[in-house]
Amino acid sequence: MHLLWFRRDLRLTDNEIVTLATDNGAAVKPFFIIDPWFYTWTDVGKKRVRFLFESLEKLNSNLQKLGSQLYLFEGNSLDIVQGLTKQLIE
Hints:
By secondary structure, the protein is α/β, with parallel strands linked by helices. The protein has one domain: Rossmann fold. The longest helix has 20 residues, at 46-65. 44% of the residues lie in helices and 18% in strands.
């Protein structure tokens, strides 16, 4: 299984990392992490947060059309990625 971490580019089409992750037909777990530091940035206002969540909803909808889903996590990115990687190994 491949972990597909969406960070900035939330598109499925014309997205190189999506192409690479799905190229060999392996199962893919697409996910997005909301790190607590995101809310502490001075330039993150209500409109930016709303746009992010609307974009995540759209991405999830597009993934569901393909028989998948977007997994959302909140917390320290390093801890979450390490936990997901550990789950794949076990």
